[in-house]
């Protein structure tokens, strides 16, 4: 089995490292994206998806959890303690289980990817940018009306922030 999830103790933390660019998670990410256009599964989107999924299935793993996603990885951090070491091992096992038994995650995203809490979390984690916005809207076509309306409002709020500074030309 490919080693794409590991745990480690470092300083005052215990961490779970998830290499989302490894072959198996990357392939799953492509299938998730085919099911839900917003799921283009870099480290930031894995953070959103795992936070949402844990909130539904294992909320105790969110207690004390801090995330540090990057484009090609997702890192979960807990303060070092015996209880949190157990949480980290459980989270690593859950991630492996979701990747290896991908049907559960695919079904969850297919059934719930259009729900407001998921895409609110995704936008809150900056998974929607000016660069990818137009392509996401085009990919959705005529589907996902509620999500599109939310994303359009979110995108407008991003543009308004940028436009406010445009008035200060030097």
The largest β sheet comes out as: 4 strands, antiparallel
Count of separate structural domains: 1
Q: In sequence order, what are the helices and strands, one letter per element?
A: EEHHEEHHHHH
What would you call the structural class?
Answer: alpha+beta
Number of helices: 7
Helix content: 55-70%
Low-confidence stretches: none
Task: Kindly report how far apart the N and C termini lie.
Answer: 57 Å
The coarse silhouette is: globular
What's the count of strands?
Answer: 4
In what order do the strands lie side by side in the largest sheet?
1-2-4-3
Q: What's the gyration radius in Å?
A: 17 Å
Q: Explain this structure to me?
A:
By secondary structure, this protein is α+β, with helices and mostly antiparallel strands. It has one domain (5-163). It has seven helices and four strands. The chain has a four-stranded antiparallel β-sheet. Strand 1 (5-10) and strand 2 form a beta hairpin. The longest helix has 22 residues, at 145-166. The mean pLDDT is 82.
Which key phrases capture this entry?
170 residues; alpha+beta; 7 helices; four-stranded antiparallel β-sheet
Condensed summary:
The protein has seven helices and four strands, in the order ββααββααααα.
Topology:
Elements: E1 5-10, E2 13-19, H1 23-35, H2 43-57, E3 66-67, E4 73-79, H3 82-100, H4 103-112, H5 116-124, H6 130-140, H7 145-166
Antiparallel strand pairs: 1-2, 2-4, 3-4
